[in-house]
Amino acid sequence: MDINLSFERPESGPKSGPITIGWFLTSNKGAVLYDPPERVMFRPANRVHAKSASRCPAVIQLESRYFMVKCPFDLHIGFKRDEKGKAQLINRAGTGSSIRGNKLGEVLTLVNETEWRSPDRPTVQLQLPYCFIADELVYISQISAFAHYRKDPLPGTIFGGRFPLNLWPRPLMWAFEWHEPEKDLVLRRGEPLFYCQFEGEGPDRPVQLVEAERTPELQTYMDQIGGVVNYVNQTFGLFKAAEALRPKTLLKPKQRDG
User: What pLDDT, on a 0 to 100 scale, did the predictor assign at position 251?
Assistant: First the structure.
């Protein structure tokens, strides 16, 4: 039996070029803090030798599929329980913190203990305004920054996730499962926070990321699907209903003056 493993893309048509994905911030508040997502590029240490990993097609293909979102804040957080056993976060930076104490709770929250995956592993969430949209089927996978070396490893793992961003544009958050709560959680502004991997219908098409306009049509659609996680358990079951509501075009690249 002959098996055709050719992945040649058509020379013309809507799926002949790169997959265009738009990114935008769901709020303009503090927008200067949030850097644009960047394509993951490993340090080009040795590109001279023909067998260098920097010139390996497999490595180049891997890099082309991942985009990095950087941490917008400096955070030094500890975990403790009070005299009644209630879980709490501690701002270890104190008065030296770059975030005012009364604002910390707006960006970093401790998930209700009843929702932790394991009773001895606290879960925290960092609220972010990053959102992605496309006008064709594209899955986004949020994963840890595996290619970034940390001298002091994080004391736990992030919660990843995968969903079709063309139907379910929603702001991403950074969710962290604290495996060693006796160790502090330290995040630094500008360091990779997580990666996004994008998958279209075919494996061969490259990905291009553009900044998108937060148009009234896009905002209306997001309002229609927003917050449903608070009312149903299986939001994936709403994809067909969301598709029926979705306008054909939601991605409008932002035009820069000058």
Answer: 98
